[in-house]
Amino acid sequence: MSKKKKTLTKKSGTKREKIARRGLMFVLSSPSGAGKTTLTRLLVQKEENIELSISVTTRKRRPSEVDGVHYHFLTRPEFEKMRDAGELLEWAEVHGNYYGTPAKPVEKTIAKGKDILFDIDYQGTRQLYKKAASDVVSIFILPPSIAEMKKRIRRRAAEDEQTIKKRLETAKHELKRWGEYDYVVINDDLDAAFADIHAILSAERMKRVRRTGVVAFAKKLQSKL
Ligand code: 5GP
Question: 213 CA distance to ligand 1 centroid (A)?
């Protein structure tokens, strides 16, 4: 099928006109253990026109994490300084730690006409909706079952029993938030869930209101009729 499609495109040789569009704020949220982090990484790897927003956090770095790649790890006073200076687009306390989105990189990305991907919780998502509702597209990822969710939380060997307990408790409250999101994706199969997310992103990018260049294109057509 894909082979046939490729040939057709080659034969037609059509060069598609690039239509300017506004970048969007693509939010993925879920309770711990729904596989959101894997899906986030996949999207950044496979999609050119989207950049991941790297949060600041006061949480301790896990051994597998790299400062500046997964998070910017800060002390509480450092975080509070940024927050109080108004440098965060949104922030929240999750599992007893602070997490926040630095505003500057988001503004830069959107200005370039690129999309920005947020791996944030429901509190942060609410704040983004308050600030830029028409630019936000949100997806809530659900695990296929509670047993699977618990298994995934426990698999994170870096965390002790108390942390795991706290995460399970938070997950219970987070799970209730699915109704606040534009879309819900069930992560029962990684490839299928990724395909769902990709389809949502593609369709949202095509929305007329985001395709700012469509106005000029359509008006040019109309003027020539
Ligand atoms: P983790 O400690 O497992 O990396 O993240 C815990 C939770 O914090 C996840 O649900 C994640 O989405 C959320 N989170 C990460 N960064 C941010 C952020 O910048 N703002 C908000 N509001 N939540 C965040």
Answer: 34
Q: What CATH number has the domain bearing residue 196? A: 3.40.50.300
Ligand 1 binding pocket, CB closer than 6 Å: 29, 32, 55, 59, 90, 92, 94, 99-101, 119-121, 123-124
Chain segment 57-80, per-residue pLDDT in tens = 999 999 989 999 999 999 999 999
**pLDDT interval class at 168 (50, 70, 90):** confident
Query: Do residues 55 and 132 touch, judged by C-beta distance below 8 A?
Result: no
Please report whether residue 195 resides in a domain: yes
Q: What average pLDDT does range 82-99 have in this prediction?
A: 96
Ligand 1 pocket check: which of 87, 121, 168 to mutate, most ligand atoms within 8 Å of Cβ? Answer: 121
Residue 107 covered by a domain: yes
Instruction: Tell me if 3 is assigned to some domain.
Output: no
Between CA 169 and CA 38, with CA 100 as vertex, the angle to 5 degrees is 65
What is the C-alpha separation between 165 and 41, in angstroms, rounded? 26
pLDDT at 5: 40
Range of the domain at 107: 21-206
Domain count, the chain: 1
Give this prediction's pTM.
Answer: 0.90
SS3 content of the chain, % helix, strand, coil (to 5): 50, 20, 30
